[in-house]
Amino acid sequence: ISLKRGGGGCLKNARFWGDVAKDFFWKTKHTGQFLDYNFDVTKGEIFVKCMEGASTNISYNLLDRNVHERKLGDKVAFYWEGNEPGDELTVTYRELLQRVCQFANVLKSQGVKKGDRVSIYMPMVVELVVAMLACARIGAVHSIVRRSLPSSLFLPLIRSDGFYRGDKLINLKLLADEALQKCRDKGFPIEKCIMLKHLSKEAEETSLGSQSPPAKRSCPDLQVPWNPEVDLCWHALVRGASDECEPEWCGSEDPLFILYTSGSTGKPKGVLHTVSGYMLYTAATFKLVFDYQLDDVYWCTADIGWITGHSYITYGPLANGATSVLFEGLPTYPDVSRMWEIVDKYHVTKFYTAPTAIRLLMKYGSEPVQKYKRESLKVLGTVGEPINPEAWQWYYNVVGERRCPIVDTFWQTETGGHVLTPLPAATPMKPGSATFPFFGVVPAILNESGEELEGPSEGYLVFKQPWPGVMRTVYGNHQRFETTYFKKFPGYYVTGDGCRRDKDGYYWITGRIDDMLNVSGHLLSTAEVESALVEHEAVAEAAVVGRPHPVKGESLYCFVTLADGVTYNRTLEAELKKQVREKIGAIATPDYIQNAPALPKTRSGKIMRRVLRKIACDERDLGDISTLADSSVVEQLFQNRCCTAV
Ligand code: PRX
């Protein structure tokens, strides 16, 4: 490793990443600078380009290269573990390559071309990875959906019939049909839908590799309405497709995927990542941060629909030829030992999860963990939100039995991969600190006036130069990209997080400093939840704040002012909850809704969220509230606080 952490001039940086690039296949070499960029809005348009002029294909590098050059064809790529214990499937690199080629041919036969956008709405099944890599193979841009479909995007949609989450059946087909209707209503008809039958009857008869799908997976009664003009069956299409497909050679800066993430204005942003830089960055961070070795069995419990799953289930591990567990279910089903049972079953060595999952399992004590040996574990990782020291200690002492270093990885959908992180066993740990920057990443802490602070300090976390995996733009709105990340402090990428640096130079993330909430490691914007609430005819105004939650980190506390003549009652409360859930997703379900006949506002009409946060937490030290137009509102809200979750 030739690059100092947190530093390295441009030349050294290029040399380091150039060495990483040597492991990969390039159809043509790059012609421009290795990493070219402008981070200063005052000097022109913001851009980042990595290896311009080179061409490659990421699916070729993840699959063909591993099968043919590295002779890893018989190595297991995924141990798929279904929701139901006993449902399992093993897929080798060779099989994965065949399946990806088959499905790439299917996409081509449906008219999908390089540059087309393909939306994917599927549960945690191997076919989800197949669909992503098939898009990448033909140069199509995937966008995995976790919430309502952005209507302007897609040519085809790939989805599944349904899946079980614990003992709850989720009918994805009906959800997707509703979303498609909305797209049609807005004048964006989706041309084709390819549907994977995962639970319904036909799934049992189809070709999931050489192994027959386990019986427990099926749900013959699942209602799957079928529209022959739009709906196509995955299995029927794949059956006739060739398992060879020449990859489409893509430019380094061609788009690889779009992933929507919450924006503080309430409108989700389509974060766009490109081929080469993202490949190098996810591959290198995976290898070094998890100290990846060829005989490791790695398990990341995230959903592939989140960036963690993109970077550290699909791209990073496969780029290294890693063997991973792909888990469809929940940590608490059928009981709270499920995670540890899976660790023993597959001899998992590297394990990556979120603080919210750790806190959830911590509630049940150490006995469900100690029922299993966990002897194989070597490195434990966390991601998604600051990990509180209690959860860190429990993870370290109970799960890892004080043997396994913890890598607390700080990063974002936008950063593509880890940016602040320990290296296991090499970085002395401090519980709750993401420690130091990854190679080539240069952080700074700024004060409100944009001055860089030296030594121990606290302020805005920013980055001074790009790394290969940083996002390139907000899909369809480059101006929004510049405004969101580069306008506040010209010359820096602004993360939106607060950060403290201690006397030893360790970085400690203190949480978001914009109007974003972090619920179970998932970012939500308050504006987004507020607009879902005010779309209900009974609501005149809404204000949402975060309230600390022992498992989720933060929960949603919503204040609603009702329209004239409407009375507040439990039925309305349930309707509002449902409305937010349907508009945004289950993760955004409000925990508290308070009827607020008036909201605390300044004389200029701005809602004082700071005061609302205090009310939500029942903290009376309000600080200076002299700018409030009517301070009696505050007392009224304190008196009617919600003490129990709805
Ligand atoms: O606030 C930080 C928090 O999660 C945000 C990024 O969320 P998202 O784009 O959904 O990506 C999550 C998975 C990478 C960050 O701005 N965050 C993420 N990891 C950590 C964290 N906060 C503290 N410590 C972390 N390790």
TrEMBL record:
<protein>
    <recommendedName>
        <fullName>Acetyl-coenzyme A synthetase, cytoplasmic</fullName>
        <ecNumber>6.2.1.1</ecNumber>
        <ecNumber>6.2.1.17</ecNumber>
    </recommendedName>
</protein>
<keyword id="KW-0067">ATP-binding</keyword>
<keyword id="KW-0436">Ligase</keyword>
<dbReference type="Pfam" id="PF00501">
    <property type="entry name" value="AMP-binding"/>
</dbReference>
<comment type="similarity">
    <text>Belongs to the ATP-dependent AMP-binding enzyme family.</text>
</comment>
<dbReference type="InterPro" id="IPR025110">
    <property type="entry name" value="AMP-bd_C"/>
</dbReference>
<dbReference type="InterPro" id="IPR045851">
    <property type="entry name" value="AMP-bd_C_sf"/>
</dbReference>
<dbReference type="InterPro" id="IPR000873">
    <property type="entry name" value="AMP-dep_synth/lig_dom"/>
</dbReference>
<dbReference type="GO" id="GO:0006629">
    <property type="term" value="P:lipid metabolic process"/>
</dbReference>
<dbReference type="GO" id="GO:0006085">
    <property type="term" value="P:acetyl-CoA biosynthetic process"/>
</dbReference>
<dbReference type="GO" id="GO:0005737">
    <property type="term" value="C:cytoplasm"/>
</dbReference>
<feature type="domain" description="AMP-dependent synthetase/ligase">
    <location>
        <begin position="70"/>
        <end position="473"/>
    </location>
</feature>
<keyword id="KW-0443">Lipid metabolism</keyword>
<dbReference type="GO" id="GO:0003987">
    <property type="term" value="F:acetate-CoA ligase activity"/>
</dbReference>
<dbReference type="InterPro" id="IPR042099">
    <property type="entry name" value="ANL_N_sf"/>
</dbReference>
<comment type="subunit">
    <text>Monomer. Interacts with TFEB. Interacts with the 'Thr-172' phosphorylated form of PRKAA2. Interacts with CREBBP.</text>
</comment>
<feature type="domain" description="AMP-binding enzyme C-terminal">
    <location>
        <begin position="528"/>
        <end position="606"/>
    </location>
</feature>
<dbReference type="Pfam" id="PF13193">
    <property type="entry name" value="AMP-binding_C"/>
</dbReference>
<dbReference type="InterPro" id="IPR020845">
    <property type="entry name" value="AMP-binding_CS"/>
</dbReference>
<dbReference type="GO" id="GO:0005524">
    <property type="term" value="F:ATP binding"/>
</dbReference>
<dbReference type="GO" id="GO:0050218">
    <property type="term" value="F:propionate-CoA ligase activity"/>
</dbReference>
<keyword id="KW-0547">Nucleotide-binding</keyword>
